[in-house]
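Long-time lurker, first post. I've been practising inverse folding by hand and with some scripts of my own, and I keep getting stuck on stretches where the structure tokens seem ambiguous. Below is the full token string for one chain I'm working on. Before anyone asks, I'm not after the true native sequence, just a reasonable design that respects the backbone. If someone could post their per-position residues I'd love to compare against what I wrote down in my notebook.
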């Protein structure tokens, strides 16, 4: 990897914390050129992140490491499945892994395709080290944010499972602006009963306000929200 500009080191505060290696960010490098993999690995290591290199997307998939925190650096054109093919598979399987494409054969349509599918960046070889490191840090930051949000949503789901079917119906209607009298009419129950269900929903979901309740509702997966409507 040719260095076209001086490498700017990241400040120590952004270095990975010590601890269980499996929980640390790892940069997965997929390129059929061994010299490129080695150069990229050395660059990633120089700023304190782990990296693992693979010669093909097949090797990557067989290694079963895609669930680890971090991001991907993918060559676009390789023997077998391409980097774009892997990106499409990950999106289809619900694994929006942050991807940085690095290629010597890029073109505008290819770049547009990759970026529309959620790529962090589309860089052409030879690449400035700092440009690549900036993209890597952006990818790792994005992955960390997604994982944190996933934990938040998991907590919401655990709370929603404690609701009764009727409480879920009330939740759905409250989240869509329904008032007690209207909800009582739609569900064929008394307004007092609606107030009781509404109070239970607020308590079980640990919501402190209607705005908080709506934010929790909007964060739930679409399938869960639809189930509440059907329930």
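-- Answer (accepted) --
I ran through it position by position. Result:
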């Amino acid at each position: 990897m040719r260095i076209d500009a001086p490498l700017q080191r990241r400040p120590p505060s952004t270095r990975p914390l010590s601890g269980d290696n499996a929980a640390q960010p790892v940069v997965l490098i997929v390129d059929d050129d061994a010299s490129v993999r080695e150069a990229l690995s050395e660059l990633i290591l120089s700023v304190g992140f782990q990296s693992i290199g693979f010669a093909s997307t097949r090797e990557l998939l067989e290694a079963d490491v895609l669930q680890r925190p971090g991001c991907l650096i993918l060559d676009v054109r390789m023997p077998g499945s391409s980097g774009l093919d892997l990106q499409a598979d990950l999106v289809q399987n619900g694994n929006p892994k942050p991807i940085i494409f690095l290629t010597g054969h890029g073109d505008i349509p290819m770049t547009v395709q990759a970026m529309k599918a959620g790529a962090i960046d589309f860089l052409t070889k030879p690449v400035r080290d700092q440009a690549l490191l900036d993209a890597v840090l952006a990818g790792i930051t994005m992955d960390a944010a997604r994982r944190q949000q996933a934990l938040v949503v998991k907590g919401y789901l655990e709370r929603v499972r404690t609701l009764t079917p009727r409480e879920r119906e009330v939740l759905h209607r409250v989240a869509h602006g329904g008032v007690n009298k209207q909800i009582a009419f739609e569900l064929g129950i008394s307004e007092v009963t609606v107030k009781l269900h509404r109070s239970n929903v607020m308590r079980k979901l640990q919501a402190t306000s209607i705005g908080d309740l709506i934010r929790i509702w909007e964060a739930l997966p679409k399938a869960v929200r639809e189930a509440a409507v059907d329930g």
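A couple of notes from the structure itself: The longest strand covers residues 26-30. DSSP finds ten helices and five strands in the chain. Happy to go over any region you disagree with.
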